[in-house]
Specification:
This protein has 298 residues and is α+β, with helices and mostly antiparallel strands. The protein has helices at residues 13-20, 26-34, 107-114, 147-158, 231-238, 287-297, and strands at residues 2-4, 11-12, 38-40, 43-44, 50-51, 56-59, 77-81, 85-90, 138-144, 163-171, 178-182, 185-187, 195-197, 205-213, 217-224, 263-271, 278-282. 19% of the residues lie in helices and 29% in strands. A hairpin with a 3-residue loop joins strand 7 and strand 8. The longest helix is centred in the middle third of the chain and has 12 residues, at 147-158. It starts with a strand and ends with a helix.
């Protein structure tokens, strides 16, 4: 895969690629560069190489399938599929891609069984994965079949062309009907397994709108302007309204039957990488959140 760098202010190669491919960590980018899998104008360079715009970057394609992460015949809810992409409704409790501690039962394992040709940009552990959902967040996700589609979709997310809307049930009663939450997100300085609003974090913006209020809970719609790890969970906690069922970010009791936080990726809007058509996908609210809302209304 190769592409030309657009007009930019001077920027390190690893930083530029980390921004371009929002699902890549900077350490992953640096490893690709150090392994010689990324070249600039045909030459191997260091991660600190300064881009000025107009350079041609080549990324050596990696086989999408690895014997360590085998295809598995797992049920997946496919909302849409064509030659370029697959849109799925991920179930709550399903991990998106393999990791050191989870090597089976993931969405990637299921996709490898369903579709042999997925984008190889993210390597053997995350073929096709353009963006992620937390294990205990359900809802709509897009997966790239080709490298060209992957580049297009990643750029759309980075440039806020692709938009995502979530539905959530939070503790407490929000007084404002709508609002915008800002706060840079990075690793928690005390607990590295958690994210937090920190001075040196990445900028993050979440819009929210109240859909319905109950005695001790609020049903809200959240729209992401950025896509940071645990963004909605961190931002809603920061304003005093953590998500119901989110044991990582609140100690408040959960009186309802839901395994994980009450957060659902409801809609995704994007431009099709090939046809350039504006497309909207929606995943219906899962039964666990429906049941909670029914009990709250009752």
């Amino acid at each position: 895969m190769n592409f030309f760098v657009e007009e930019i202010s001077p920027r390190r190669l690893d930083i530029y690629l980390n921004e371009k491919f929002s699902d890549w960590s900077r350490s992953h980018v640096q490893k690709l560069i150090s392994d010689g899998l990324i070249t600039v104008d045909g030459a191997q360079v260091k991660a600190s190489f300064k881009l000025k715009g107009g350079e041609e970057i080549f990324i050596r394609e990696v086989d999408a399938v690895d014997v360590e992460y085998l295809p598995e015949n797992l049920p997946i809810d496919i909302l849409y599929e064509d030659a370029d992409l697959i849109v799925v409704n991920k179930a709550r409790g399903m991990t998106v891609h393999p990791a050191e501690t989870v090597k089976s039962g993931t969405l990637v394992n299921a996709l490898l069984y369903h579709c042999k040709d997925l984008s190889g940009i993210n390597g053997v552990k995350r073929p096709g994965i353009v963006h992620r959902l937390d294990k205990d967040t359900s809802g709509v996700m897009v997966v790239a079949k080709t490298d060209a589609a992957h580049l297009s979709l990643a750029a759309q997310i980075k440039d806020k062309i692709a938009t995502r809307t979530y539905l959530a049930i939070v503790h407490g009663v929000l007084t404002d009907n709508a609002g915008i939450i800002t706060g840079a997100i990075g690793r928690d300085k005390v607990d590295r397994k958690k994210m937090a609003i920190v001075p040196d974090g990445k900028p993050a913006v979440t819009e929210f709108k109240v859909l319905e209020r109950f005695g001790n809970f609020t049903y809200v719609e959240c729209k992401l302007q950025t896509g940071r790890t645990h963004q909605i969970r961190v931002h809603m906690t920061a304003i005093g309204h953590p998500l119901l069922g989110d044991t990582k970010y609140t100690a408040r009791k959960n009186p309802f039957d839901i395994a994980g936080q009450a957060l659902h990726s409801h809609t995704l809007k994007l431009i099709h990488p090939t046809t350039k058509e504006l497309m909207t996908f929606a995943a219906p609210l899962p039964e666990d959140m429906k049941n909670i809302l029914d009990k709250l209304k009752g």
